[in-house]
Amino acid sequence: xxxxxxxxxxxxxxxxxxxxxxxxxxxxxxxxxxxxxxxxxxxxxxxxxxxxxxxxxxxxxxxxxxxxxxxxxxxxxxxxxxxxxxxxxxxxxxxxxxxxxxxxxxxxxxxxxxxxxxxxxxxxxxxxxxxxxxxxxxxxxxxxxxxxxxxxxxxxxxxxxxxxxxxxxxxxxxxxxxxxxxxxxxxxxxxxxxxxxxxxxxxxxxxxxxxxxxxxxxxxxxxxxxxxxxxxxxxxxxxxxxxxxxxxxxxxxxxxxxxxxxxxxxxxxxxxxxxxxxxxxxxxxxxxxxxxxxxxxxxxxxxxxxxxxxxxxxxxxxxxxxxxxxxxxxxxxxxxxxxxxxxxxxxxxxxxxxxxxxxxxx
Length: 362
Description:
Blueprint: H1 15-26, H2 40-50, H3 54-64, H4 71-81, H5 90-103, H6 107-120, H7 125-136, H8 140-149, H9 164-175, E1 187-191, E2 196-198, E3 208-211, E4 232-235, E5 255-258, H10 261-269, E6 277-281, E7 301-305, E8 325-327, E9 349-351
Parallel strand pairs: 1-3, 3-4, 4-5, 5-6, 6-7, 7-8, 8-9
Antiparallel strand pairs: 1-2
Helix pairs in contact: 1-3, 2-4, 3-4, 3-5, 4-5, 6-8, 6-9
């Protein structure tokens, strides 16, 4: 008979450490005197109600970081933390403080937070910022830095990352019909642990979808109209099943990643004036990139990775007038580059790692 296992409860931080973490997150020096602001007792309540949870302390401090030292503001944080206090419910405390933090965000920041929680977690930060900038303007860099300062996303990572608990709570916001009808169905992702697609609701327009981990699970049935507004589409070797009809690539797509040459051809046949990121990965049967590329006038980042049979590139590649980065790494059969590559006047970075057959440049 196997012994019964009891959960191990990780002890909270000591009060002195908790105070230091809270103040650091709030942008306050440890020696700063709050007595003149009548906040000493409120700070003690925040530390007490956080119960030593590092994430709760960081979120509480991040929420107050740029706010004036007003008692009412700080008491609001105490109330949020008390949501799970009586049952000693750490999840309740985190839910309360995250809801308060989320509601305080600009609506663009809310959208960015939900993107990371559902479909963009682990993606390169610079690619995510490219898409957000294309959609919302140059100010997204400042808004993302504010999310970092609020400890809602990881400020140290080169890829967009957030705490597992925050990701789960963000996903719950998308799935929660009662609190966020406006987010319901807006993002679709594949949950590896559950083995199913999450977030899809029929007749709800999808803004972003990440289905890259379900290549052996078959397609997902969707309505064509639900995908008409999608801006981020990260797919594996499958096409969404659209009422048994041929899939049409949405015209306002900003980011497409796929391992399927069929999906690539569908995208190139469509008119995609806004597409700024295109990634083709591990398409081993592809020997040449299909035409035409010339219509992708907004494309800034083109990545063709681990396409082991790819031997040539089209001349129309030189018509990508906005292209800044071209990554052809691990295309081991690629032997030549088109002369038109010299026309890419905006190109800043060319990666040719492990292109062993390539001996000269045009």
